[in-house]
Amino acid sequence: xxxxxxxxxxxxxxxxxxxxxxxxxxxxxxxxxxxxxxxxxxxxxxxxxxxxxxxxxxxxxxxxxxxx
Amino acid sequence: xxxxxxxxxxxxxxxxxxxxxxxxxxxxxxxxxxxxxxxxxxxxxxxxxxxxxxxxxxxxxxxxxxxx
Lengths: 68, 68
What we know:
2 copies of one chain form a homodimer. Chain A is α+β, with helices and mostly antiparallel strands.
């Protein structure tokens, strides 16, 4: 299991939190995801043998947010 | 039919627009609703014989936004 903190721009409200946590959280191999609106970060704990970091970033991007 | 522009705080993204327009737009007596994020306003066209202004404000409030 790996832990990473991604910097993500554009998340502004509770709906954004739900959109990111909901989409990333349902990826197979992701065990936890937590958005911090004030810090503009997303903490993700995942198994790199099951899901790639690129896939996680792509999922956030697909929700309309910019991973930096 | 009456037209009113409400000042609403807390709307920050496309999800907020959907939440407000979706909830107010389905009220019986409301013929149109348009959120302007930049201006922090909600334009509503409604029939006061079918729906009260208080009900419209309460609906926006229920979505988590502050009508001023």
